[in-house]
Amino acid sequence: MKRIILNGGLNDASRIDTDVVIAGCGAAGLYTALNLDPSLQCILLNKAGIKHSSSMYAQGGIAAVIQPNSEQDSPEQHFADTLIAGAGLCDENAVKILVNEAWSNIEQLIKLDVPFDRHDGGVLLTREGGHSRNRILHCGGDATGAHLTRSLYKAAMARDNIHILSIMSLSDIMTDEGAASGVLALDEQNKTCCFAASSVVIATGGIGRIYRNSTNSVSATGDGIAAAARAGAALDDMEFVQFHPTAFIHPHENGRFFLISEAMRGEGAVLRNRRSEPFMQGVHPLADLAPRDIVSRAIVSEMKKSDIPNVYLDITDKPRKFLRSRFPTIYEECMLRGVDIAKDWIPVMPVQHYFMGGIKTDIDGRTSLPGLYACGEAACTGVHGANRLASNSLLECLVFGRRCARHINGSEALSPGAMHFAASSGNCADEADLDTYINEIRVLMTHNCGIIRNGKHLLEAQERISGIFEQLDAMALTTKKSIETYNMSQVAREILCSAILRRKSVGAHYRSDDESLEGRNHA
Predict the structure, then answer these.
(1) pLDDT tens across 362-395, in order?
(2) Contacts with 195 (C-beta within 8 Å, 6 or more apart), sequence order
């Protein structure tokens, strides 16, 4: 595997020296930047524009025990719910930090004018799958991510020490004497840009686009995770890929599937099969609010049983006024697609949604490579274990993004290290071939490493995707698309390797050939 994948040398690259460079302009990257000491100069690399970060599409909200609360809730209960969802594989110390620091970060968001929905002067709360209490804060009904990201972006633009560079794609993480020293990126014209910094933060989001069906942004190709691994940073929990049970069955033109928020089930929506039966009854004590992996497998079971492409989400018992107020984004989107949710059931299916694995970090966002930090979906802090609890994702961005910033603030200020590398070589990647590679990766990952897996299919996918990776490794990569394709093959291979090694089912990783499951209900 190449250490540096970008073709070319530094001679023609523009170089900018700064204190901190952050790859990613979603909630994690923006919030990290806002918590840096104002004396530190920070550059944020924005790959696809603010409208296309996965944070923008987050509908549900942010899980947090508010203070004071009237829900008889506590951080201890939030902690317990998170551990249950994580199927026993959460890092308990990281989870304690997550739930105990939640409210102080919410207070900071309120100071930044994030417009949380309110009722009678207090913050309005709802409930989602796996939660034992109402503790989900939301904005604009079902547009939390959009309101949060816009507020953070506005605040960042007002800071003199933060500089946001748009349409800038991460290629590689540079090192000097065993520590991160900056990054290489491509601008909109595929020109190499070199950003030298003593601290590098990866906040590039997830890996959803390696699957055919995903709610993720088009930019979620695992760039930061792949670059960190090539630089020598450790990865963890790569087999744990979460599928959201309810996405509208038809994607947008760009291939992204529209999410039907779990908060809708929190407000009483019921999943039904083609016979109108509420099939989650009896599958799990929480029925429609069971953890996402259980609901997703139950839906797959119903779809196979009846040979249908989807099931239905029914919230027709709620009045239209409530639906338009509580779920304005979903209401309008479904109307555009010919579904009136006040009268019609919503056709839904499970699609890839979130990645629990990623770059292994400690509680301060530090990776195994000195000077390199990670936060948000690209990081593996250990808080999610084998299955993320609903609405803990934006909370993780906040809690550990601020911790990244505070550790950087307390570190000794160093001048950026030297940056040098050998140019990669090989024949230029053919653009037509890239489309073929991308499609094959997505089909293999969807069918062989999806909601239900088995050793035979995982090995088949590993062999073919390793072949694609090796072919790309021999090519000269000069464009954003070629680099994304390489990263997709690298990350897919890592996920498959981890999935093959974990022979027992746990959380989102479900092996149909797990012998311990024989005779049990596989839903």
Answers:
(1) 999 999 999 999 999 999 999 999 999 989 999 9
(2) 15, 16, 18, 21, 43, 45, 182, 183, 184, 185
